[in-house]
Structures are given as C-alpha cells and as structure tokens.
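User: Before I run my own analysis I want an independent prediction to cross-check against. Here's the chain; please return only the structure tokens and, at the end, one sentence I can use as a sanity check.
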Amino acid sequence: MSLHAAIFYLLGALILGSAGLAVTRRNPVHAVVYLIFSFVGSAMLFFLLGAPFLAALEVIIYAGAVMILFLFVVMMLKAESADQASLSLRRWIPPLVVGLLFVALAALTAMREPGGAEVLKSATVAPRVFGRYVFERYWLAVEIISVLLLLGLLAAVQLGIKGTPKGNGTETKTGAES
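Assistant: Structure tokens:
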C-alpha cells in the first residue's frame, strides 16, 4: 500500500469516526467540534484527490459559514452545560486526539519532503471536470445530501420555535387588525 492510499484510508476512517461522534454527543458544543473535524477531513480528502479549489470551498463554506450557523442555533436554543464537569480536561481529550490526528495528516499531506523515499505526486483536476464527474455519476447522493441538510435546517428552526412562548389569546388588536 502506498503512502497516498494509507493517508486516504486513515482520513476516511477519521472522518467517519468524527461524524459518528458528532451524532452521538449530548453536548451540542462537542458535537459541533466533531462536525468541524469531519468537514476539515473532507477538505483534506478533496485536496488529496487533486481538487484544491473544492478543499478551500469546503473549509470556507462548511467548516466556516455552516458551523457559525450551527453555533447560532446552539446559542438560540440556550443549551446550558449540565455542570462544571464539561469544562474538565477529561472531556476534551477525545476531541484533542482527533484534532491532532487531523493536523498530523494535514502536515504529512501538505509538507512532504521532496527528497524523501516516496514523494506524493499532486494531482490536479479542473473544478469543471470534477463537478461534471460528481454530478454525472453521483447525482442521487448529491440530491439526498441536499435533502438531509434541508431537513436538518427545518429541525433546527422547529426546535427554536418550540422554545418560544405561545400566545394565550389575550393579545390586544391593533387598529389595522380590527
């Protein structure tokens, strides 16, 4: 197995692991941290497969903008930490280990030694070619992912609405309504 393949499979395992941890965490902040790791790992896979533009978009859009949206949702829901134990170092050891693994793989991918025994050859693919490939062969997966993201957004909005107080029927009507 080449170094390129080993990095690919290790990244895939880390992405699956961090996505699984993001789904199973009770603390929403920890879930967001693991989801950020998953997005950054996906960006590293794009870079490894020869699509640096998509890797940059993954980091900018998903790991940046979407995670800010998720953090706003967490703040909107007023998620409170159950106790002071959430601040202990013991709870942050797994995210730190996963994060350090991602940093090590990123360093191995980006700063490889040119005079080393096995140099990773960088592949480049035009964004247009990559997009055509993805949408021609994996159009169903792309549509399923978009529906899942829409459902997640609707669920977050519903959870936010659930916490707002309902009217008790004693509201006063304004002049325009009467």
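Sanity check: The chain has a mean pLDDT of 77.
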